[in-house]
Amino acid sequence: MNRSLSLLLILLALLLSACSTGGSGSPTSGQASPSAQARVETDATAEPTPSPVAQEPTETLEPDVTPTEESAAETDGTEVVAPEETATAGPEPTRRPDSTGATSEQDVVLDRLAEETSELRGLPIKKEIQEDYLTREQLRERLAEDFRKDYPVAESDAEERLLKAFGLVSRNTDLRQLYLDLYGEQVAGFYDPKTDEMYVISSGRKLNALGELTYVHEVTHALQDQAFDLHELTERYKNQNDDATLATLALIEGDATVAQIDYLRSQPIEFQQRIVEAIQEDQTSTAKFDEAPPIIRETFIFPYQEGEIFVTRLRDGGDFDAVDRAYKDLPTSTEQILHPEKYVENRDEPTEVELPDLGPVLGAGWKKLEENLFGELQTRILLEGEGEVEQARDAAEGWDGDRYALYGNGNRDIVVWQSVWDSEQDAEEFASALREYDEARFNASYSEQDDTLALAGANQVALIRQEGERVSYTLAPDGALAEQALDAISR
Q1: pLDDT-based confidence at 32, cuts 50/70/90?
Q2: What are phi and psi of 4, to 5 degrees?
Q3: Residue 323, SS3?
């Protein structure tokens, strides 16, 4: 449900540190802390972070998360050393003259980085890559403008109501401001596939070692765009299937993260030492990321962390040929990203779930505000909110498809959610975990009423009904509305 993730393709600063200090492909050992893995580099295919309902990409700044930490977001102003000091010899770069006809040393460095990235990733530079710098204040101004154009208030309000109904964010959360604060803090750089613009966040218009890694990540996005048309890929499921969009982002961001790690491994030890120094000197805050609810924080970083694992599995120690083929045969669910064997070996395509229009059932005044799906990832995050992590993951692993809808009437909301599972036992495990989640957050108990579980909380009635491999759920202001909605989606 992360509408913000599809706004731009970004790189998180936290992620940069993680990439430089550890990760599956990194030359050093050790894992970065969760907060260290959260800083974002922005990409033009990102959007605000997916809430419990994964949201489709919109043309706005989106955090790009990689297994590195946050340092690339705001560089320390130290200029990257000359090409021969940081990299092995590569193809002669195309040098771009400035307005005076001269070519700056910085442009030479950027050209060299683009050429090396192209060679490492195995994607040609088909047209000149244009880049620029933004200060963090300029980034925040751009984010506000992009959100205004591409993330309508009605859309963010509906997402916020849905998250609150499911207990995924607190009642006093201002979701729109939360996204703006989070992206403003964490974005280290971004590529916008709609405009072909690429930016690195820097106060001094220069790159330090972490900024160099950020540039490599974003250049990879530019190369992907030239080869595969990222705008079309990220818009394919817009506002229809947020889980599939999140899976697509995991391929894109995982690919860029792996290329970034390959670049890091190709550099001399002195470069790695400069990265450590840049991380130590970096003063960028991670407060907003650390304070964000799990549904925002974990969805935010999923494309980078799990995407890197997924792409590494596709490569299987070889080149990027299998990764290139995946752009022609996209993963269709976060389940396939979390369990790569369900994409690589025995393809497990999700079951499509359809919900009826409840307008005629609910009566006058009720309007559908939101409809989409959670997928395995966000279902798991929801269940983890009030239960044991391992139990929640086990309960979510049997996911085979789902669909939810939010209806509003003034300040009253009705939520319906139907899911299908790999087996009846998987459905039973999920229904049990969902029951425990509601009982903990409402501090009330479900009771059995024929084939339905019912819970009456403060101004809320929740119903759960399992029928074989299918589980139906409703949350409404009173019992009559809850029963009407449940009966309608259970037919």
Answers
A1: very low
A2: -75, -25
A3: helix
Calpha distance 252→327 (Å, rounded): 9
Q: Which residue spans of the chain are classified as CATH 3.40.1000.70? A: 359-490
Q: What is the pLDDT of residue 450?
A: 87
Q: What is the pLDDT of residue 38?
A: 33
Q: Which three-class secondary structure state does DSSP give residue 118?
A: helix
Beta-carbon-side half-sphere exposure of residue 118 (alpha carbons within 13 Å): 22
Domain covering 359-490 in this structure, CATH number: 3.40.1000.70
Taking a C-beta distance cutoff of 8 angstroms, is the pair 190, 434 a contact? no
User: What pTM, to 2 d.p., does this model score?
Assistant: 0.84
Between CA 488 and CA 263 the distance in angstroms is 54
Helix, strand or coil for residue 114? helix
Let me know: does 472 contact 486? Beta carbons within 8 Å: yes
User: Could you tell me which residues are beta bridge partners of residue 201?
Assistant: 134
Read off the tokens for 253.
Answer: 């961001």
Report the pLDDT value the prediction gives residue 262, as an integer from 0 to 100. Answer: 95
Helices (H) and strands (E) in the chain, counts: 20, 13
Q: Work out the average pLDDT over 224-239.
A: 92
Local confidence band at 409 (pLDDT 50, 70, 90 cut-offs): very high
